[in-house]
Amino acid sequence: MFRSKFDYKTPEQILKMRAAGLATRHVLDAIAPAIVPGATTRSLDDIALASLKADGAIANFALEEDYYDAICVSLNEQVVHGIPGDRVIQAGDIVSVDAGAELGGWNGDSAITVVVPGGDPEVQARREELNRVTEQSMWAGIAALASAKHVNEVGAAIEDYILGQGQFGILREYIGHGIGRQMHEEPPVFNYAIAGRGAKVAPGLVICIEPMVTNGTEETAIEADGWAISTVDGSDGSHWENAVAVTEGGVWVLTEHDGGAAGLAPFGVTPAPLS
What we know:
By secondary structure, the chain is α+β, with helices and mostly antiparallel strands. 28% of the residues lie in helices and 24% in strands. A 5-stranded antiparallel β-sheet has the order 8-7-9-14-15. Strands 1, 2, 4 and 5 form a 4-stranded antiparallel β-sheet that branches. A 3-stranded antiparallel β-sheet has the order 3-12-11, with no helix packed on it.
């Protein structure tokens, strides 16, 4: 997964990564309102391609070996890496979209999950709670990064948040990562506490924080297409991701329009503007 040893980026390089991050955000902004009953997952990929073209960016997902689409779209029991195709979105589905852009030789990577209105009320409520917990655990991890000394403090904060909300499964085989010239770089960014401290948190560190959570167990299997990761017990999954830069003053979320201000506010953290 990881292609190169990471380095700490300069302020000038982080500003270039901000452009790639916003191109990635534009993709998700365009796709979110199109996640409706009757839409195919392929139609969402078409929207992604149009958005990337408008920004002069390319799909970094399509640069991955043996992957040919602009985004990943994962429904219900699929947690991550779903391939766009003929699958039709239904009312009540929980839909995760993972997108990435390369612009000017730098990469962005981000994911959102949407619960489509109109499903069975009990199922929908369960999916919405899963989605809330997953998104907020991401923000808990980003907030922890703002004061962390080492990267593994992020995973501990994510796990603490999730376990404090109820019974959920945290995927352990799939984790976050560094990002820069390559979409997947060192260091690994775990979504749970592990032994060891991990990479030093210092200005210039840029990582993707991306919890993947289920409302069942953490056990998954790769589908026959060789990509989609689905829960073995058939439970639902949710996936949220942002690319975050550490600056002299704190953190800035490269893949959010406001630098993460709204998401971090409940945790008492204010993003440090890029210079």
